Amino acid sequence: EEPVLLAELKPGRPQRYDWKSSCETWSVAFSPDGAWFAWSQGHCVVKLIPWPLGETELCKTSERKSRGSKAETRGCGAAKEKTLECGQIVWGLAFSAWPAAEDGDTDPACAVGLPCLVLATGLNDGQIKVWEVQTGHLLFSLLGHQDVVRDLSFAPNGSPILVSASRDKTLRVWDLSRDGRQVQVLSGHVQWVYCCSISPDCSMLCSAAGEKSALLWSMRSYTLIRRLEGHQSSVVSCDFSPDSALLVTASYDACVIMWDPYTGEQLRTLRHVPLHSALDSSSEIHTSSLRSVCFSPEGLYLATVADDRLLRIWALELRSPVAFAPMTNGLCCMYFPHGGFIATGTRDGHVQFWTAPRVLSSLKHLCRRALRTFLTTYQVLALPIPRKLKEFLTYRTF
């Protein structure tokens, strides 16, 4: 099935033409539990929206517009939208659960001993501002980067470790449990760092910069493991599979490369061939330079956004896309944590929600994912099992 446009969000503020207004939606994010959605809607603000949208709102004709108020009641009962005034253009967003204080917390959202949800925002001036979602209060301003903070990634295991990627050519590691203390600076890139992604098992970090190689780091020792070389142009996006067994990188060379992060082996290349029938015949856009790639929650699909004005959905074991959707000026994409649809951000500040294939994972895939969650490729290869089973468990049966 082709993706269907379910809903579209548009900035409520009029566009201005000075650089501070910057209306691009460079980042969208769902909270890990799927209860909140955040988008950098331009104009130096982030909109926080309680999720899900009402069933009657998730339709083509629905259109939600931000009106600039600090909090607005919408959809989910008494849940309120929030506008975070960041004071600078927002580039990166990342959610994480914040552990409640043991000695009691004055914040009602944490008083019952439940984790509080936080949102980190990467800004144009190099700051990272961390907000408490329920209240909209600013918790930390992290200082250290000397240029735009382009991307952010929290450790998926719920630990308060945050990694930031910046145009100052570094990655920085922060510990929010220690008042946002900077733990490490990772240097190795010679160009702007566009993207960072921590593996679900929290053992590895991948970073992509304006270079032909991506870098893979150890999250235990914060040292460089290897360079992943194979692209012909700048690598701009990366993502790990849910079991950490696969890594995908997207590049301006119009290709996605699928890697085994443990061995550095290239497993597959997905080439973005122009789909001329989906393009306006008067358009001069012939490039498929990629902007973003992400895995689906069950690990059987990929989504990509490219400059040829298409959202593509790929099945893990096929070399051609299984679905297309026409979109204009796409910059980023992200799956809903429970699957079923994809959010995309555009250069004009809009967010669009698209249907995505729903799949019932086979027992074989569920077993593979369960095993690969705690076994490395080398550990699988050392098991006393048939060769074909090893190939399946290491994703070499494509």
Automatic annotation (TrEMBL):
Domain SOCS box, first and last residues per copy: 362-398
Gene3D superfamilies linked to this entry: SOCS box (1.10.750.20), YVTN repeat-like/Quinoprotein amine dehydrogenase (2.130.10.10)
Source organism, top-level taxon: Eukaryota
Acetylation recorded as keyword: no
Record's keyword terms, sorted: Repeat, Ubl conjugation pathway, WD repeat
Metabolic or biological pathway, per its Swiss-Prot or TrEMBL entry: Protein modification; protein ubiquitination
GO BP field: intracellular signal transduction; protein polyubiquitination
Pfam family, one: SOCS_box
Each WD repeat, start to end: 119-141, 142-177, 186-227, 228-269, 283-317
Protein name, entry field: WSB2 protein
Organism: Gymnorhina tibicen
